[in-house]
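All the exercises in this workshop are built on plain-text protein records. A learned vocabulary of local backbone shapes supplies the integers on the structure line. Once this layout is familiar, the rest of the handout is easier to follow. An example says more than a description, so a record of this kind follows:
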Amino acid sequence: MVRKSKTDNERALVKRIQHYVHKGINSEEGDVTSVRQDMFERYYGEAFGNEREGFSQYVSREVLETVEWCLPSIMRVFLGGQRAVEFAASGADDEDQARHETDVVNYWFYNGTEEDSGFMTLYSWIKDILMYPNGYVKVSVRETTEEETTNFRGVSEPDLRALQAKDDVDVVIRKEYPSKETGNTLYDIAVTEDVFQRGIEVIPLPPDEVIVAHNHTRLNLDGGKFICHRTRKTRSDLMELGYTEKELEDLAPADTETWNSEEIVRHFYADEIPTDDDRTFEDESDERVWVHDIRIRYDDDGDGVSELREILMAGTKILKNEPTDYVDIVAASAIHITHKHIGMGYAEIVSDLQELTSTLTRQMLDNIYKQNVQRKYIAEAAITTDNKTMEDMLDGRAEVIPMRGAPGESLLFEPPNSVVAELGAVITEVRNLPQMRTGVAPTLTLDPSVLEKSTMGAFLGALEQASQRLELLTRLFAETGFKRVFQKIHYLLRNHFDEPQQVKIAGKWVTADPSNTARVELAHPIGSSPGQGRGISPVVRGLSIPIDGAEIPTAPELLPNSPRDYRAGWHEGIDFAADRGTPVRAAAAGTVVRVDRDFVDWDAAAMNAALDAAIALGYTPEETLDRIRGRQVWIDHGRQVVTRYAHLDAVADLRVGETVRRGQVIGTVGSSGFEEGGPHLHFEVRVGDDYLGDWLEGDELVRVITRSFE
């Protein structure tokens, strides 16, 4: 087989991306963009295009009224309670930690982003789902380096020299003068240094910037084949992201268009629309190019299995292509259509009523006008030769109208035929229809204390004093959108923040270390047990894979509950294949409770005798099972969660009681305890007396195992 070059592979990848971008959901060539443009024009009360000159062109505003009356009620639910999301404690000893994590995650959503506050993010996102089929937000890590200048007075010369010797500090001497006490020279200086900051940002995205694979049939984007945030950036923007001038050479535009039609519609006023003259004053750093931030599943390494990759493509050049396990965009919809990604906004379900009300009102206004300014019939013989009669008849300001003959015989008014009462009654009925369809009216509201009745971010309980339809909208948004955002914030804090963070909670700055979390829930079993009837399987969240580059196995023989006939027992862990000596890392921060520093493996005779005894008993005794696991390290993560790392070839220099951080090397892969199994890591997650995956099998087992590493 001829293997493609890297250049050929990149060309094929670019073509694949371009296909999805131009054919995907929300693309310029699709129908969804037309719906959004129509709803935007309805919101602004734009004309329908069927207007006639000389007749009423009134446009009612049902779309605007529905959206704007919905917003306050829904916003109160998410902003009126003490916390928008609460993480449930797994027991009495977990109450403080769960409360702490709740406060930290809420802080990052509502206060963590200076440019887009939590309030404005919520406002934009909710408004998007009310106006359009879907609304989107992006949850990502924000890293910035900013210059910070501090002024100092009375600095001694040794201190000044020490500051000047630092590579990352710029020192400017403002003033030099002798000390009154010692006569030594003192300095007033300004010290400028680069300050690195890392945070979480949740940014609402214009729906036309998010492209989703055309065959995606779920609202949730996790697991999707193609998700893309498509926007324009300047070369300067890309350099701020860390790319060099060399990497940005030969950037070719991916598309010929500069502005898509939906973006032009969004720039409603003429003042907002850019012109070609703008380019006259731009330099090379202002040159803009389409940038695609992509999550795509495809077979990158040629093993026949597709993997999720994070790709950044500027123009047609791939700047980044890395494996990932994280999709950074969350979708929501006001009206979820099952088995479809595309939903429906409230604007869409009242759009036809806006046109109907406008048409009826126009007819009523035209009828009133005809009654006030009746049509006139004038005899031709009454018109003067200079046509002054017709000119003054058409001029409403004329007080005297010259004509021939008697006016009573020459002028006839069209008899009025009023339909105002009938049209008024119909309009009144039609005006009530939006409330029937949406459950939204000025007199309805939602109780903000609903969040105080919630658990795990699920907005449960009664939403009193409001319609059931508005209640359902709020619950749907909370479950499918809002909760996922907070889960993603929690994930990013665990996996991308190695150092404790300073956050402000209840008016006080406190230290938060979210990397120390491995939150636990209990999941009732689905399906039949593998045979021992052991009860409920624990479900753990927040673990990282203990071997770099390894993937979560799905083969049944590598997962819990696989039969081990040679010892009359069951497998209780997850086997990660790896070469001998491969580093093994802690799956989460915790405390070492066992480390086999002086391990001595058993001989073949002792092992065979123990296995024969197990078969005779019909089960594997715990002592035998422990010897089979070989050299081990156990880490306690709190809340009864303990991870075990078995068959190790060697262990790191650890001590019982020592604290380890997530990702710290705790040993190397081996085959101790059971040489016949070959080098691999046997990884167990214990919750009390149970193990992760206990009682489960098939797809449910794989799902629980996979979610443990999310």
